[in-house]
Amino acid sequence: MDLGFTSEQDMLRKSVAEFLAKECPYETVKELEESADGYSSKMWKKMAELGWMELYYPEEYGGYGDPFLDLLIIMEEMGKMAFPSPFFSTVIQSGFCILEGGSEKQKKDLLSKIAKGKLIMALAQYEPEGSYQETGINMAAELSGDQYALNGTKMFALDANVADKIIVAARTSEGVTLFVVDAKDPGITISKIPTVAMDNSCEVIFKDVKVSKDDLLGAPGDGWNILEKAALPATVAKCAEMLGGSKASIDMTSAYCKEREQYGKPIGGFQAIQHFMADMLLAYDTGVNYLYKVAWMIEEDLDAAKEVSCLKAMVNENYNFISERGVHLHGGIGTTREYDVGIFFRKAKSSEFILGSSEYHWEKVAQAMGL
Question: Which of 107, 191, 230, 306 is the most buried (most CB within 10 A)?
């Protein structure tokens, strides 16, 4: 297992970091958080021109076929800047579902459009009960002739408010089935949910939405299998973003502790502060090194289900710990919009529940251990 980066990957990291620092500094992040769309369409087009969306997809579907680690580098750098965009929901969540379950026609059509930045997608999986389990998907999809009628409510669908198409998990007579639905269908009502992260988490209500058999993603009843397979690399990518946020929290808190003076010297000179910072760095280093191990397993197509759950549970806890300590060491000012560290505290709280809470993944690890 080689944990080193190639010169091309170093260049990729540098170019992504420079682009985000120039195009979307933290003040712009805050402005986008408060906007209706929650992202910048101009930046999205620029990202497409830089080739970020097409990086990982196979060449036959409009991509470059680059290693999985390259995708994680982009996610890490986005995490450092708390960059708001539909990249995760479109390129990763939806894209991986299409790669796992789509027909050749769907892959060539949908992935090529995503790769060129011409299609934004969202995944509507969770329901009001908030379950991560297969049994938590109860939205009805009733077949009548050559069409299905979708009725029900989905919650926490990231970027559904700006999506062109939505992948919807619903229950047919065969079991959980995935559908590719036009987000602008008149039977769909989309509302942003106010969250601590100020992200594009949405409620999506379906009322007699007609979907053709041709728009199934995979076979009827195979939806859960597709979701589970796509969730493995998607979870690792989300962890990369969270670890990027952890690193930014540490860096800005360390800089603040060197500048903020109390009792005649910088607060970083006090032992208690030093121990806090050391614990934050230890939590980050542990997570980021495990991230690369799990990424290697994904790249090598090894069975990484247990390791992915270990990683997500650990990163959930560590990101919350690091960002909370960052706010703590800034003092009361750290909770305000004036200082940037609070952005990561809010993102950590939200990211914890995307693709599985700590409790959910602890249970999966225990099951993998035979307990």
Answer: 230
In whole angstroms, how large is the CA radius of gyration of the chain?
21
Per DSSP, the chain holds a count of helices (H) and strands (E) of 13, 10
DSSP string, 294-358: HHHHHHTT---HHHHHHHHHHHHHHHHHHHHHHHHHHGGGGGSTTSTHHHHHHHHHHHTTTT--H
Q: What are 202-259's pLDDT values in tens digits?
A: 999 999 999 999 999 999 999 999 999 999 999 999 999 999 999 999 999 999 999 9
As given in the structure block, the two tokens for residue 237 are 């990518």
Q: Which residues, other chains included, contact 361 with Cβ-Cβ below 8 Å and sequence gap of 6+?
A: 309, 310, 312, 313, 316
d(CA 24, CA 120): 20
The CA-atom distances, in angstroms, between 240 and each of 40, 76, 162, 243 are 22, 5, 24, 5
Residue 205: beta bridge partners?
153, 189
What is the arithmetic mean of pLDDT over 30-42?
96
CB contact set of 144 (below 8 Å; sequence gap of 6+): none
d(CA 211, CA 147): 5
- Residue 179: alpha-carbon gap to chain centroid: 21
Which pLDDT score is estimated for 1? 56
The answer to whether the CB of 116 falls within 8 A of the CB of 54 is: yes
* pLDDT tens-place string over residues 272-286: 999 999 999 999 999
For residue 83, which of 204, 199, 175 has the smallest C-alpha distance?
Answer: 199
User: What is the tens place of the pLDDT at every residue in 181-191?
Assistant: 999 999 999 99
Each residue of 150-181: b (16+ CB within 10 Å) or e?
bebebbbbbbbbbbebbbbbbbbeeebbbbbb
